[in-house]
Amino acid sequence: MFIKAHCPVCDTDVYHNVRLHAMEHLNFEGEGQACRYMVENIKVTDSLTEDELVRNILQSLQKVINDGIEIEVLAGILKENYGITGACCSGLIDRVQLELGMYCPDRKRLYFADPEELGSYAKKVTSLFALDNAVKFSIGYPPQMYNTK
Prior knowledge:
The protein is α+β, with helices and mostly antiparallel strands. It has helices at 50-60, 71-82, 86-99, 121-138, and strands at residues 2-6, 13-29, 32-49, 69-70, 102-103, 109-112. It has one domain. It is extended, with a radius of gyration of 21 Å.
């Protein structure tokens, strides 16, 4: 799971991917039972800046982020797929909203600010990719400079 921390050295926010190993102990007393958890090991497996984490999220969610996506759905995806804690979700969703030029008039759904750009984020990236190649062609870049992937 990713947790947010503040770096005292560089004064930025960083996200640590934390692995937590715990042991469950069951106590039986009569007809009832109780569970107790003891933490055995905590390990930080990775650390990312907020920019790196947002970039990774945007790259992998290209086909999921579309015009009118519900904030709760996006938060659920971040929690389930990235292990981002609930407290961090709203800040990251705000960053995604800024990076993609989206707005949220009803505080429930995200919409692209450009009315010409209907559809998903993947369409936006594809059109920017095509435009980039067209510009390279028009200014005379050699063919090996074009991204054809």
